[in-house]
Amino acid sequence: MNTLLTPASLGYSMPAEFAPHEACWMLWPQRPDTWRYGAKPAQRAFVDVAIAIAESETVLVGVNDEQYENARNQLPAHIRVVELSSNDAWMRDVGPTFVTHPDGHLALIDWEFNAWGGLKEGLYFPWDKDRRIRCKISEMLGIQRFEAPLVLEGGAIHVDGEGTLITTEECLLNPNRNPDMSRETIERWLQEYLGISKVIWLPRGCYLDETDGHVDNLCCFVAPGQVALTWCDDEQDPQGIISREALSVLENATDAKGRKLTVHKLPIPGPLYIAEDEASGLDRLNSSHPRLPGDRMAGSYVNFYIGNSVVVMPLLDPRHDGEAENILSTLFPTKRVIGVPAREILLGGGNIHCITQQQPRV
Predict the structure, then answer these.
(1) Where does the record place the catalytic residues (predicted)?
(2) Is pLDDT above 70 for 184?
(3) CATH number assigned to the domain with residue range 8-360, chosen from the 4 options 3.75.10.10, 3.30.70.380, 1.10.472.10, 2.60.200.40
């Protein structure tokens, strides 16, 4: 393995999400087989997320040309709208992973992307526009782009900025991503491209998560040595089993600095299911993931965005929204927690963290 010109060998590393940001990148929803009723309800939710984050940092929203005027007219003037074509709106996964250098340089990682599983198991086809987004952003910002030999989405990883990365076996070891790579090889590439020194492997992501168990829906770092974990009290619920598996790993793990982890439990909403009217407004295409009435959704309050001065969390269930908001307010005492109605985003298969990507300040 040639590591001569990898980011880590040049001194770059990935900062934690709770480190200072320069900006936040998003994409505009319009895909009719993902977002119901021509994506109009989803666009309203995306606008609300962008407005909340813009209290904290610059927000840039990438838009396909045919939706440019619509997006520009819906978004406030202080939110930047740029023409940046995509196949769908999951900026966390199709956008760049930014890395920084102690000398003040910013660069980005261009992972391989196969729409969460490739031609047989991926969520849609084609994904050619998504593959070009990272290259375009590197050109727009005038920064170096490192092409990584690894299929990986941004939602599959969380880092503490001090050498530790957390992920799931269900996703990164899935044969639909990197079938010829061992766990050791994948760890080595993560070290070389993100500047980390330790990987904590959780067994599985949230129940029925269509991304094959992205960690950002299950668990995330909220500070060095501290993580938030999706929690279900019901031991008979499949999510309850998954959460307990993860808790066992986390309680027995140490981070790259040798610290034991403190685990903060966030209750799951629901369970939440797709209603008849929510499924009826979608285009049904053979090339995309079906969304049917009665399907359980992988709702999670862990899928929040940490901004410079705000934490933007999804509002998903009135029975649990307040409890989740109180927990996050305790975890982030210097930031304002903003809840945004986010069921429309969940109906598309993800949530607030999935549709955002932070650009760190250097």
Answers:
(1) 354
(2) yes
(3) 3.75.10.10
At 1, is the pLDDT very low, low, confident or very high (cuts 50, 70, 90)?
very low
**Higher pLDDT among residues 124 and 289, named by residue:** 124
Active site residue 135: no
Report long-range pairs for 112-119 (Cβ below 8 Å, ≥24 apart).
112/148, 112/149, 112/150, 112/151, 112/152, 113/151, 113/153, 114/151, 114/176, 114/177, 115/87, 116/153, 116/210, 116/211, 116/212, 117/174, 117/176, 117/177, 117/212, 118/176
Tokens of 210: 């269509």
**pTM of the full predicted structure?**
0.97
Q: Residue 310 has what pLDDT?
A: 98
Total H helices, total E strands in the chain: 11, 18
CA gap 136, 172 in Å, rounded: 26
Residue tagged active-site, from 24, 206, 219, 354: 354
Q: Which amino acid is at 272?
A: L
Instruction: Determine the 3-state secondary structure of 108 from DSSP.
Output: strand
Q: Residue 170 CB: number of other CB atoms within 10 A?
A: 22
Q: Which residues are registered as beta bridge partners of 82?
A: 62
Strand partners, 163: none
| Amino acid in position 320 | H
Other Cβ atoms closer than 10 A to 135: 14
Residue 67 has pLDDT above 90, yes or no: yes
pLDDT of 4 reads: 66
Q: For tokens 């067994």, name the residue.
A: 203
Task: Tell me how crowded residue 234 is: count the other CB atoms within 10 A of its CB.
Answer: 12
Residue 284: is its pLDDT beyond 60? yes
Residue 338 structure tokens: 């903003």
End-to-end CA distance of the chain: 30
